[in-house]
Design brief:
Largest sheet: 3 strands, antiparallel
Order of helices and strands: HEEE
Strand content: 25-35%
Structural class: alpha+beta
Helix content: 10-25%
Number of helices: 1
Radius of gyration: 13 Å
Strand order of the largest sheet: 1-2-3
Number of strands: 3
Length: 67
């Protein structure tokens, strides 16, 4: 998997989603990347692999609002 360029600021959720939607992010690059969005996460289906990114949410029964 390709790594985002790092600087002092963390990327926003939309920047991360855009990055992970791109087939060139993955090695080997899949033909396409399908994105499934749930109430608490994004799931990226990239070829034979699936990657899950939790959303920064606080729903009471789960709190992913901070690292």
């Amino acid at each position: 998997m390709r790594v985002m360029e790092s600087d002092t600021a963390l990327p926003s959720t939309s920047e991360l989603v855009s990055f992970l939607k791109s087939p060139s992010t993955y090695d080997p690059a899949p033909d396409r990347v399908d994105v499934i969005e749930t109430h608490a996460a994004y799931v990226f289906l990239a070829g034979a692999f699936a990657y899950k990114m939790k959303k920064p949410v606080d729903l009471g029964y789960l709190d992913f609002s901070s690292l």
